[in-house]
């Protein structure tokens, strides 16, 4: 497999990164060293930001008709169709997520871009308002240069969604991938350039948290969309605060699952096992803590172990694998420390899968105990299980986690499930399932608690990248 060298994309032209700082990338399946690459130098970041400012000021993109922007984005979607396999293979190797799943993501990217265009066409950028015969118009206009700070766990999917919605709104974009997963961004940048995005409207830089903070603190950036950990989100918010830069932060969350006394235990175990091991447990809405009725906790744990044992652990690049390695060595190390801390107060840990000697593999792990405490944000295949008595106690424990991104309820009684779910403080609460997909096409989800700022329904994302301006004739002879 050809591994692209991460480059700085300035005004549609890629150039070699020139910072002295470098990052080593390894195969998560074996631990083999794959690549050493340099970060973008500060001067390169500065030039990309200047290009975005100039592109926005020119009006070449921001003032273009939506139909003109749609032509470019449609060409971008078509280009993505031709590189789906490449993106899938690179993301599988970069993130450890099995290629069967990264391929599903990669094949969905063209539809993501076309959905952005469809919503923008539904939501007219200019419409006349009823104003007693006066000419008053409501307009939407992009804030200006927008930074996309991207995660390592779903690099292409998050980049493409954000860049499509930002561009269709008229905003120029400066993207920075995670230093752990830079490769697919190169493929996306090439597709955008080939599709005809004007010079300066898309820029790509590479670097670590220091580079991200540099971008977030820069007054030339008018909006930031960031996906990552709660710790990283706080750092970005702090850096952006001086300029009151508009923020959309999708952060981490220890998501609760409440299992009521009447739950179907085998079905619940299947859903929970799928949820906390999907993408190797490396997705932000995975269930992290289960509060199960005390009468069925033992049966549930046994059923979960049986489900975990059915997983096909193996290389992320194999089509047969359903559970791969952690993305990088540091992630595995953090999770191992968290498992030790969670089991220390008297809980027991259950890790059913045998592991190969190489790579960053970690068995899906259950931590079972009366008062299991999660030591910070858990982002991997670890599931805490605690017995509780009564719905009220279960909801109280769930809300005490403080995350607010997602929640789950398992019961045979849908009406009861809806009632219990409505009491969980989270932007999305699912009954009897843990699908990665939205429950409905027009779903909208806000980030409650410490899980972020804003939301990630399609319309919410589109709304974020542009502001509203009302323009027109004022009231004649107003009384005040």
Automatic annotation (TrEMBL):
<feature type="domain" description="Aldehyde dehydrogenase">
    <location>
        <begin position="24"/>
        <end position="466"/>
    </location>
</feature>
<protein>
    <submittedName>
        <fullName>NAD-dependent aldehyde dehydrogenase</fullName>
    </submittedName>
</protein>
<dbReference type="InterPro" id="IPR050740">
    <property type="entry name" value="Aldehyde_DH_Superfamily"/>
</dbReference>
<dbReference type="Pfam" id="PF00171">
    <property type="entry name" value="Aldedh"/>
</dbReference>
<dbReference type="InterPro" id="IPR016161">
    <property type="entry name" value="Ald_DH/histidinol_DH"/>
</dbReference>
<dbReference type="InterPro" id="IPR015590">
    <property type="entry name" value="Aldehyde_DH_dom"/>
</dbReference>
<keyword id="KW-0560">Oxidoreductase</keyword>
<dbReference type="InterPro" id="IPR016163">
    <property type="entry name" value="Ald_DH_C"/>
</dbReference>
<dbReference type="GO" id="GO:0016620">
    <property type="term" value="F:oxidoreductase activity, acting on the aldehyde or oxo group of donors, NAD or NADP as acceptor"/>
</dbReference>
<dbReference type="InterPro" id="IPR016162">
    <property type="entry name" value="Ald_DH_N"/>
</dbReference>
């Amino acid at each position: 497999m050809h591994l692209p060298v991460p480059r700085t994309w300035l005004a549609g032209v890629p150039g070699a990164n020139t910072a002295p700082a470098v990052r080593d990338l390894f195969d998560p399946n074996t631990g083999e060293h794959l690549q050493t690459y340099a970060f973008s130098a500060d001067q390169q970041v500065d030039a990309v930001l200047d290009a975005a400012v100039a592109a926005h000021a020119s009006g070449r993109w921001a003032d273009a008709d939506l139909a003109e922007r749609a032509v470019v984005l449609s060409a971008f979607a078509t280009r993505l169709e031709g590189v789906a396999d490449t993106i899938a293979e690179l993301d599988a190797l970069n993130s450890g997520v099995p290629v069967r799943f990264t391929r599903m993501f990669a094949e969905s990217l063209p539809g993501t871009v076309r959905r952005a265009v469809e919503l923008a066409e539904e939501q007219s950028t200019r419409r006349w308002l009823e104003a007693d015969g006066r000419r008053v118009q409501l307009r939407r206009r992009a804030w200006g240069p927008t930074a996309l700070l991207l995660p390592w766990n779903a690099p292409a999917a998050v980049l493409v969604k954000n860049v499509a919605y930002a561009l269709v709104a008229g905003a120029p974009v400066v993207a920075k991938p995670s230093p752990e997963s830079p490769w697919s961004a190169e493929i996306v940048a090439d597709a955008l350039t080939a599709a005809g995005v004007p010079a300066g409207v898309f820029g790509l830089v590479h670097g670590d948290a220091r580079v991200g903070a540099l971008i977030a603190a820069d007054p030339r950036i008018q909006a930031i969309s960031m996906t990552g950990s709660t710790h990283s989100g706080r750092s970005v918010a702090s850096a952006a605060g001086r300029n009151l830069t508009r923020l959309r932060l999708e952060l981490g969350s220890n998501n609760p699952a409440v299992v009521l006394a009447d739950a179907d235990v085998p079905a619940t175990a299947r859903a929970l096992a799928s949820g906390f091991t999907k993408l190797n447990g490396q997705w932000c809405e995975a269930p992290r803590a289960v509060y199960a009725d005390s009468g069925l906790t033992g049966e549930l744990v046994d059923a979960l172990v049986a489900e975990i044992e059915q997983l096909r652990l193996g290389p992320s690049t194999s089509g047969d694998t359903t559970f791969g390695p952690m993305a990088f060595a540091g992630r595995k190390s953090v999770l191992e420390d968290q498992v030790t801390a969670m089991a220390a107060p008297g809980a027991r840990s259950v890790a059913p899968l045998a592991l190969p000697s190489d790579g960053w593999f970690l068995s899906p792990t259950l931590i079972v105990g009366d008062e299991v405490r999660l030591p910070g944000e858990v982002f991997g295949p670890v599931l805490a299980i605690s017995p509780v008595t009564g719905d009220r106690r279960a909801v109280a424990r769930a809300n005490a986690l403080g995350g607010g991104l997602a929640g789950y309820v398992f019961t045979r009684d849908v009406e009861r499930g809806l009632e219990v779910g409505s009491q969980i403080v989270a932007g999305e609460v699912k009954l009897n399932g843990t699908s990665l997909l939205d429950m409905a096409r027009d779903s909208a989800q806000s980030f409650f608690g410490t899980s972020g700022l804003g939301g990630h329904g399609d319309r919410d994302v589109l709304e974020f990248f542009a502001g509203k301006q009302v323009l027109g004739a004022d009231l004649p002879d107003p009384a005040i």
